[in-house]
Write a structure and sequence with these properties.
Number of domains of chain A: 1
Shape of chain A: globular
CATH superfamily of chain A: Winged helix-like DNA-binding domain superfamily/Winged helix DNA-binding domain
Oligomer: homodimer
CATH topology of chain A: Arc Repressor Mutant, subunit A
Radius of gyration of chain A: 19 Å
Largest sheet of chain A: 2 strands, antiparallel
Chain lengths: 118, 118
DNA sequence: AAAAGTACTATGTATGGCCAAGTACCATAT
DNA sequence: ATATGGTACTTGGCCATACATAGTACTTTT
């Protein structure tokens, strides 16, 4: 029960949303995403990202093509499938709802909801 | 890989934050919280809430006292410990950071971060 | 040929929300 | 007094996911 662990827990699910969003903006490969996620302080490591991409691909939300690189092994460049685009829309709403719900609770400063019945 | 499941995943960790926040505003017992969480569309069921409260209590963030009710069995009324108050502050920052990070990514509409090096 | 770097893969662990069933107590109805 | 229904809380097992860690394969540099 420490803060770091909670950070991890809060990130669950949101990561999926962020990654789909990044891919929705144009072809990228894993290191591109890692770079952007790190820049946004959405700390992620290889061991998290790659399995997630595989999972999303197996679910039919992503597809990729191999592209030769002039500075290392070939890379998988990902794009969203139509299914992926639809899913991303759904995720977007889910995320907005969650933010709203949380705001509703954390901004609510009334002390009691109703008379206590001791 | 369906939306409902992702909702569950996104809720992880946030729930803890919301519950501590509700308790921070004054003594409440489980059904009070359930009511408020449901009102805020942060869907939660008994089987989720009770174990969570036990976990938070074992971690020393909460304490409770039994209070007799005139309409049923006695209730556990929870309050935050000092440790719990500090933890809540940390959670608050974690949540804000996560929202900012997500916004940073999902509002970023530039197509490419840098020249592609095919 | 060896070393270093890049891209991707695979396995095992821990956490936490959920489901489902169960316990215990109280109030009311019969 | 007994039965019924409601309220409050408990418990055990399941599943999905992020992470740590180690490993594979290929390329470029030295």
């Amino acid at each position: 029960m420490n803060l770091e662990n909670t950070q991890v827990q809060m990130r669950k699910g949101v990561l999926e949303y962020c990654i789909l969003h990044i891919i929705s903006r144009g072809e990228v490969y894993a290191s591109d995403m890692l770079e952007e996620l790190t820049a946004a302080k959405m700390i992620v490591v290889e061991g998290t990202l790659y399995p997630l991409l595989t999972r999303l691909k197996n679910a039919g939300l992503l597809e990729y093509k191999w592209v030769e690189s002039k500075s290392g092994p070939p890379r998988k460049y990902y794009t969203l499938t139509n299914l992926g685009k639809n899913f991303l829309e759904g995720l977007s709403n889910t995320w907005k709802d969650l933010v709203l719900s949380t705001q509703k609770i954390t901004n609510n400063s009334t002390v009691a909801l109703h008379e206590k019945e001791y």
